[in-house]
Amino acid sequence: MYENGKIYMGLADGARVELALNMCNRHGLIAGASGTGKTITMKVMAESFSDAGVPVFLCDVKGDVAGICAPGVSSEGMEKRIDRFGLRGSFAYKGYPTTFWDIYQTGGHAVRATVSDMGPELLSRILSLTPAQEGILHIMFRIADDKGLLLLDLKDLRAMLNYVSEHRAEYMMTYGNITPQSVAAILRALLPLEQQGGDLLRRAGARHPRLDAHRRGRPRHGQRARLREAGAEPDALRELPFVDALGAV
Ligand SMILES: Nc1ncnc2c1ncn2[C@@H]1O[C@H](COP(=O)(O)OP(=O)(O)OP(=O)(O)O)[C@@H](O)[C@H]1O
Ligand SMILES: [Mg+2]
């Protein structure tokens, strides 16, 4: 929990283990055997960040973090832990402000992102492209930029790929080799994404803000930052390849 400007993580040989906020921009790994408390540790960190006014984006693939929005209930085990960790008096069960981003756009806040927002690197990972194919995506994005074309959905991406392929002789002098085989492979890789609902990324409409993994909300003074979670439907989420890619950003 968040106390005195630090995250109180636990005890080791009777001494408090704390995480300083200015060290939290590093990568971290929580490891342990099944049932040893990895998820709860991550959840407590998310709650502490929220208390400190830092927005958190969580991918809730297994569906065991969503309860963060509701206060916990007292149990014998918890009462013992409150005493063991010296939290009597400072600990309170509370729910945290949560926005559920919903990739299916049925129950939560619609996830919306355009092809342009995603960019060539992320799209290449989603589509499992080879370096040569990724190179072509880079060229295609560059041409779209130069021409002032906005790539909104997968239809635009297809149209742009076909255009680049048809005019490859013209562009190869400036940007390098563009083989029809590589373009065809990218077009083929788009098929499963379309079938798995890739166009949902775009469909939400203007009233929903775009998904921006790097956006930082600016919490007002004294107000806890919003916690964001992806995944109202954990099982279905796992079927979508781009969820892994987003989680790995
Ligand atoms: N800090 C904690 N305070 C109170 N209870 C805890 C804490 N950490 C773990 N627990 C208890 O241990 C149980 C298992 O913890 P958790 O789900 O975090 O384990 P895990 O390592 O993520 O397991 P898995 O490998 O199965 O995902 C929790 O349901 C909870 O009852
Ligand atoms: Mg877990």
Description:
The protein has 249 residues and is of the alpha/beta class. It has helices at 38-51, 76-84, 115-126, 131-146, 154-166, 168-175, 180-195, 234-238, 241-247, and strands at 2-3, 6-12, 15-20, 56-59, 98-102, 109-110, 227-230. The strands form 2 sheets. A 4-stranded parallel sheet has the order 4-7-5-6, with helices on one face. A 3-stranded antiparallel sheet has the order 1-2-3. A hairpin with a 2-residue loop joins strand 1 and strand 2 (6-12). Helix 3 (115-126) packs antiparallel against helix 4 and helix 5 (154-166) packs antiparallel against helix 7 (180-195). The radius of gyration is 23 Å and the shape is elongated. The chain starts with a strand and ends with a helix. Mean pLDDT is 81; it is low at 216-249. It binds adenosine-5'-triphosphate (ATP) and magnesium ion. Adenosine-5'-triphosphate binds next to helix 1.
